[in-house]
Each structure stands twice: as C-alpha cells, then as structure tokens.
Description:
Layout: H1 10-60, H2 74-77, H3 108-117, H4 121-124, H5 137-141, E1 148-150, E2 181-185, E3 222-227, E4 232-236, H6 240-247, H7 266-273
Amino acid sequence: MRMAKKGFTLIELLVVIAIIALLLSISLPALRKAKELAAAIPCLANQRAIAQAFYMYSEDNSGWLVTGHAWFTPNDFKNNQNWARSWVACPIDDNGVPYRGWDDPVTAEFEKNGIKAGKLWPYIETLDSYHCPADKRAVKDDVGWRSYSMVASMGAPYGSWVQDGHLIQKMQEIRNPSGKYITVEEIEKKPDGTYWWNMGSWVIDLPANNWFDPLASWHVWGCNLAFADGHAEKKKWEDQRTRDWLQGTAQKTCPGIDNKNPTMNPDLEYMLLHFPHKDLP
C-alpha cells in the first residue's frame, strides 16, 4: 500500500516562520553590538597613531604643538603662525581651493586632500588612520571621512567657551600629558540634522562647566580618546543621560550635559577634568 507524503501544514509553517523571526530579533542586536565593538579596535589604533604623531611633532619642533584648527588652507598657513601648525587643513580640491561652508559641495576626496596638507600627515601617511570603520558618513553621503577632531584648546579659540588665555602652544604647558586628551570621535551635522564633515575643532564650555558639543556614538560603551603623551584609551560612559543624549539627535544646537542637573554627571566631570587648557587669571 502506497503511503502518502506528509508535508507541513499551514499552521506548522507559520510556527516555524515565527520562531525564525523571534531568533533573528534576539540575535541581530547582539550581532550589531559585536560589530560595533569590533570596529572599536582599529579605531583605538587610529587614535593611538594620531597621538603618537602629535607627540613626535612636538619632539621635532622644540616643544611646539600642532593646532586644532581644521578650517584653513595651505595658502592660509602662510599668514598665521598658529594656522601654519594646523594638524589638518579644511577640505580642498586638487588646486587647493577650499570647500568647507554649509552650501559648498564638500566630498570625502576633498577632505582627504586637506588631511594630507596637515602637519601630522608626514608622521602617519595613512588615510585610514583618520577614519573610524564604524563611521559610515563617507559611504552613505560621500562626506565625513575624518572621524576625529582635535580639541579647541590646541591653539584654536572658540568664542567665550575656550578663550585665548586657555590656549596651549607647547607640550610643557600641558600638565599631566598622560591624563589630557587631545582628539575625540566626533560626528558633525548641519543645522538641518544631515551629516557633514567635522568643521573646526571640538570644544567644551569651560566657564559654565557645560558640555554642548556632541561626540560620536559609534561604540556601544562610549568613545575612544587620544592623549597628549602618545597613548589612546577607551572611555566608557557612566551616566545614562550621556548615552541618551549622544545616541539621540545630538547637535550643537541641542541641550547638552550641564552641571545644573540634580546630580553632577560623572561623564561631564571627566571631560572637564581631562580637557587640556590653561587656567585664566
């Protein structure tokens, strides 16, 4: 007697599909986190390369430091001593013409030209060292190749937040170089919220103890920082307020982290304590 082949019933098939969907919903966030953590490893190596180049430049130039400007061209370097030590130039085309404003057609290639014109390039000479693998701006929008920004106190005043009197010009002016970060992971946005290249430098409001300039949130635990003595390390955010702000729609125009909360944010306290600057009289 011939037996009829038994297949899946519709209900059984739906149950199998539901189980697969459930397993995917459980595993995908874990895979995403694992991917972000994996990207943090080469990112940390990049930051270390920048920190070591920063230190070597100082050793080769009688203690003078590169400056944190990222707005000027090689032609501008001729007109100002601080600009002449810029760690990177702004985005420039093959003829040295700047493309940097909100309405300019900035591209990743123009950013790379600006990187090569900076004073740290001879010590690194690898474009990937300026780019975090988790930073997808250049892939999606052909802008935002450089993932790291230098702090404003490296010769780049920023209004009332980091004033001329705060600026550091020589390595000897940095108290405890191993405890002072010089570059951060930053993701710049236009006023309309679209991604952009990292303009200028990274700043924190020293007089008001306010952190309004956001950092990138490419790594699930926090961010990588490079330090003045040539090392780099991971900084894990301790406060949920910090994670919520940076993983949201953080922009310079959005409220940041300040000392007016009911309890002091330990992440704000860390960023203020380890930001290199001179104290104003």
